[in-house]
């Protein structure tokens, strides 16, 4: 396994762990205040990060799957961007929601960039 594949696997595992925590926090927010939209956005962000982290960590064992991982990460980056914008532009900003939005976006971008780098290396060979 090359160092880039290992870096992608570590970023995907970090996304998986953060996604599970975020999903749990989103569910907690839904239980405590079911009428607030940001609660559902946190849960959606967590579910997307968990899916991306699990799938990318499992698929990168075969480096030829990097283009599929890149495509999946690009969709999750879009979802994370919309969730982060929605969470950060809220009137009553909760610091936890700002952290969830920003870290979710950063982790998905890191996975996308590393998968893109692996794909470009494979195309050059």
Task: Outline the structure in words.
With 125 residues, the protein is mostly helical. Helix 1 packs antiparallel against helix 2, helix 2 runs parallel beside helix 4 and helix 3 packs antiparallel against helix 4. It starts with a helix and ends with a helix.
| SS field, number of helical segments | 4
Helix/strand order, N-terminal first: HHHH
Gyration radius, to the nearest Å?
A: 15 Å
Nearest-integer average pLDDT: 91
Furnish the topology, listing elements before pairings:
Elements: H1 3-32, H2 37-59, H3 66-88, H4 95-124
Helix pairs in contact: 1-2, 1-4, 2-3, 2-4, 3-4
Q: Short description, anyone?
A:
It is built from four helices and no strands.
Give short descriptive properties of this protein:
125 residues; elongated; single chain
């Amino acid at each position: 396994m090359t160092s880039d594949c290992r870096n992608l696997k570590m970023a995907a595992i970090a996304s998986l762990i953060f996604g599970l925590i975020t999903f749990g926090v989103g569910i907690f927010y839904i239980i405590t205040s079911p009428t607030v939209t940001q609660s559902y956005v946190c849960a959606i962000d967590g579910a997307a990060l968990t899916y991306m982290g699990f799938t990318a960590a499992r698929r990168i064992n075969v480096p030829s799957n990097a283009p599929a991982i890149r495509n999946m990460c690009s969709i999750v980056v879009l979802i994370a961007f919309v969730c982060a914008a929605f969470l950060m532009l809220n009137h009553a900003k909760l610091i936890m929601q700002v952290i969830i939005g920003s870290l979710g976006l950063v982790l998905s971008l890191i996975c996308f960039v590393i998968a893109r780098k692996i794909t470009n290396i494979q195309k050059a060979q």
